[in-house]
Design goal:
By secondary structure, the chain is mainly β. 1% of the residues lie in helices and 49% in strands. It has a single domain, classed as Jelly Rolls.
Length: 268
């Protein structure tokens, strides 16, 4: 198995953690990612410390409390593949959050360095930008949960629904050079869900010089680490593919560079 794939644990830890990616485990500097699954009535607590967090309610209902706020009965979709925007909570650094499940609950905790610049807040589904991107079998649905136009210190968070037989993160693009204004350096995680669950997604990761050139078969519930290179995703016929992207780097802006061999697709 590729070292770029992080698999969920078969038996979650006592706090419901299914998987964790840290800068140390990924071998990079900025992005941390965690998926937690809670039964009804179970709670999860986390301090943000010197990080900012974006907690995405992937599915289910919850009560969420921070040091200064309480939001009760938040959550809307009971399945990711309802394709409606999620509730999320942005947590500033030096804050603390407690999440109590009032139904079966799955959450994603996206983390990156924080400066305490922006206050903790609730991000409602109505605040999530929804767009259709691409054309033909490149068409996919985008939910911009925490884009660069919204307040944060480091994090960029987006979810993508790729219909069966379609491609996304396509044409192949990369953002692995700190070379603004042309390109920004952003580490990235892809958290995949597949419907039906026995399916898989295809993700290729490659660099211009092909010093990195891998093609991955990614299963439901797995995370792919993308520290560098182009990274397109394909959804096989019969299987719809969802992924949650978390990006962060030295500058909070998404400036990408398309593979010149495939950039002609943008001109069609």
């Amino acid at each position: 198995m590729s070292e770029r794939i992080v698999k969920p644990v078969v038996n979650p830890e006592g706090d419901g953690t299914l998987l964790t990616v840290t800068p140390e485990s990924a071998g990079w500097e900025y992005v941390e990612f965690q998926v937690v699954q809670l039964a009804k009535g179970q709670s999860f607590t986390r301090d943000s410390g010197d990080q900012e967090l974006c907690i995405v309610l992937l599915s289910g209902l919850a009560n969420v409390s921070t040091r200064e706020h309480t939001w009760k009965n938040i959550g809307k979709r009971m399945s990711i593949f309802e394709k409606i925007p999620p509730y999320s909570v942005y947590l500033s650094s030096t804050d603390q959050v407690e999440i109590t499940a009032i139904s079966a609950l799955e959450i994603a905790i996206c983390a990156a360095p924080g400066k305490g610049t922006h206050p903790t807040r609730l991000i409602t589904p109505e605040e999530v930008g929804v767009e259709t991107r691409g054309y033909g079998n490149l068409e996919r649905q985008i939910h911009n949960i925490l884009p660069e136009q919204k307040e944060a210190d480091s994090l960029l968070v987006v979810e993508v629904f790729t219909p069966d037989g379609h491609w996304s993160s396509y044409p192949p693009h990369k953002h692995d050079r700190d070379a603004l204004p042309e390109e920004s350096l952003l580490e990235e995680t892809y958290y995949f869900r597949v419907q039906p669950e026995q399916g898989f997604a295809i993700q290729r990761i490659y660099t211009d010089d092909r010093s990195v050139d891998e093609t991955l078969a990614v299963n439901n519930g797995e995370v792919v680490l993308v520290p560098c290179g182009y990274h397109p995703v394909g959804a096989p016929p019969g299987y719809e593919v969802y992924y949650l992207n978390v990006m962060a780097g030295p500058t909070r802006t998404w400036k990408f560079h398309n593979d010149p061999d495939h950039d002609w697709l943008m001109k069609r």
